[in-house]
Structure formats: C-alpha cells, structure tokens
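Standup notes
- DV: blocked on the single-chain target, sequence here:
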Amino acid sequence: MQYEDILQQNITELNNVYLLIGDEEYLMKEFIERFIKEFVDEKFKDFNFDMIDDKDSDFLTKLSNSIKQLPFMADRRITILNGTRLFTNQLKKAESEGLKNLLDDFAETSILLVKTTNQPDKRRKLYKTFKKTGRVLEFENLKYKVLDKWIEKKAEELGNKIDPKAVKLLEKMFNNNLQRLDSELEKISTYLGQQEVMTLEKVRQVISKDRLLKENIIFDFVDAIGKQNSEKALHLLKQMIDNGQSEIGLLMMVVRQIRLILQSKELYRQGKSPKQIANRLNQHPYPIKKCIKQSKNFSVAELEDMLERLLDSNIKLVTGEDKELELELLILELGQIVNKS
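- DV (later): unblocked, structure below
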C-alpha cells in the first residue's frame, strides 16, 4: 500500500501536507493512529500535536495557529484536520479560499494530515492546491487478494495463522467491512489462543452462528410492519428476545435496516442499479436487492417517521424498566405510521 512507505520514513523526509481521501475510513483511521505513534513523541505531545475539526466555525484560525507554531524539542509539529465539510457545499467559499492560502504559504516546520471521506472534484482549485503542496493518499475498499492478505496479516498480528478457506468464509460473512472483520478476528484469536491455526471449522465454531438467521428475521420483522401484520411482528420480537437478543441491540438492528431501506429507496429512485447502491453504501448486493424490494412497502415520509420514532424509543429503552413492553408498543406505533398513508 502506498501509505505503508510513509511510516518507514524519517520525520524530516516527510511531505508537509497529506490529503487522505476515500471510502475506507477504517484504514484511514488506522494510518493516522500509526502516524501519530511513529512521529509524535508522547512526552511532548501537548506541545507538538493538534486535532482540529472543520465543523468548528473558527477552524481556520485554529489551523493557522497550529501550523505556524514552532515545534518543541522536535523537528516537526503535526496537525490533523478532520474534513467533515471539506469538498462539499457546506464549506463556505471564504473558508475554501482561506484554506488554500494556508496551503500556499505552508510552514516548513509543520506537517498537516487532512482526512475526509467526501469525494473531491479534482478540477477544483482546492484539490489542485493540495496536490501541488503535498501528497494525496487514496484509501479505497479492499477487495480480492488485497483483502485476503489484510485478513492474513491481521491474524498474524494477533499471533495466529489462518487457512485460505477460513479467510473466504469471513469475507462471505462480513464482506469487506474491516471494522467488523477486525473485531471477529480478535474474538476468534481470544477464543482459540495464540499460535493456534484459524481453520475453517474452528472459525465456524466461534463466529456468530446465528448472524444470517438474525438478518433474515430482521427482514421478516420489518416486512411484517410494512404489511401491517402486527401479530407476526410481535411473534418475531418474542422469538428474537427468547434467543438472547437484547432489546437495545434489537432496536439498533431495526434502525440499521430502516436506514438501509431509506438509502436504497432514494438511490434507486435516482436511477442507481443495485450493484451501484451496494458499492455506495459499502454493502453486499444481496441485502441491497432485498432492501429495494422491501422499500416498496413504505413511502420516504413513513421511513423518516419510523426512524424518528425508533430514536425516541432508544431513549425510553435506556431509561425505562419494562424494555420488552416498550418494544411491543413501538411495533404497534410503527404499524400506525404505515397505516396513515
């Protein structure tokens, strides 16, 4: 990977500016953590490191002060800018110009890492300035052999080896969701112990055996609500709770499903294919096809109202005593939302 070489350099050899872009936020975050660990002395971190967010109204002032401040007992000072608004119409023209001016007159004693998952228009001045001033690093979703090697490397870091068939099983179960794969690999390693080989059978024993079952139940559960079949929805609710699913965990699964349906519906209306929608939402095409089909049971307004009610219910589940009753009432209310239109 192009950014691996950067971590092997001496701090005096680094570029002054790095723009981190792409969909793979997990890799981006991992790179930043390793960058800080490698190049920021913990003893002087308070003097030589700043984290700034462009959501702050005065972020340009903070950024300018951070960049122009001289390093203390170090060769370079490091600043991280979280570009939530970067390359979007939320970033005002004056802010874009101010950022461009900072890049054009950048202090040699500073290093700036700017991270964003927003897709830049490479024809614009701001992007061209980043490219001219420093280096653009693209963090893309891992696929095929690259993803295989990433899983193998993660297993090795945990003190294990992993069989190719086990690698393929994990990819089939969790696609290229690196955050989830990392969590599952850690769970498997903890269960097996170090030095043990992660074989196909052992991995099958450890990973959540009922994951696909749960997802199918959630699809059926939301379908029942969309078809105003409260009796079936209540039956599935009881089944999931009896199988050990926590009420809050169940609610979060429903929230995730409704969001996916809403996003899929909107993108499908824009003429996107299921494959394009899956890539956009970083999901496997199979559940996206099911979401598109399921979205026909709901209007956009209904899905938005349902999400709002689900978030309200989350607060009641955290503070209330009878969580199962709250979910039963929620099912009836969701059914009423669909019934109104």
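- Follow-up: The mean pLDDT is 87.
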